Predict the structure.
Amino acid sequence: MDLMTIAGFVLGVGAVWYVLASGGILGLLYNINAAVLVFGGVIGATLITYPWRLIKRLPKCASLVLFPPRMPEYGEIIETFENIAKKARKDGISQSLLEGVPPDTFFVRAISLLIDGFDVNFIRETLHNEIIGFKKRHTQISDIFKSMGAYAPIFGLLGTLIGVVQVLRNLSDPASMGHSMAIAITTTFYGIFSTNFIFLPVAGKLSVLTDKEALIKQLILEGTISLQKGEIPSVVKKRLQSFLADYEKNLK
């Protein structure tokens, strides 16, 4: 479980809850009509925009925010390749190299391509295309949450407009005016709150996880190419360290 995600959510929601409770308006923000308008509208707009094959993946992908997959550290990847290079230098390129490979499907495929004797260009192209496909699939999911984050405030604004219209229609009835104003205010709150505490944070965390896993795959690609070229273990290690340093430098 990702403690930073939980801590951030608790801190953010707690701050909002404290302010609302201090003002004595916490109970006033419960409005089923406003919730139906905002969340029903967001779901409807999302169904219109994206195909079902992507939408059905949302619950599983959203769970990664709280329960991210276990990923090896960059240093572990580099150390693994250094050990594989030592074994390859001693025993040659053989099936025994898979014994030191972590149970990562991409990692296994990369080393298998090496064992099967494919050339550098084929290995690079094959693994590079797989990385591109991986990033595209995961970016599509984070884009859906970004879209939901854009829809929610708009439906909140729509609820505000509906509430204002109802107020204008019931100027002679103070009781009805209060109900209408409640819809106007709470829909805006639901829209803004869900955008900034659900949809956009989920999209952002998924993007971070995607970038990290893509970098791990890129390290695996570079390490496999280095092995295919027959480079000695120390060169393999330095090459991967240099690749990682250049990547982190470009982020600054």
Remarks:
- The mean pLDDT is 89.
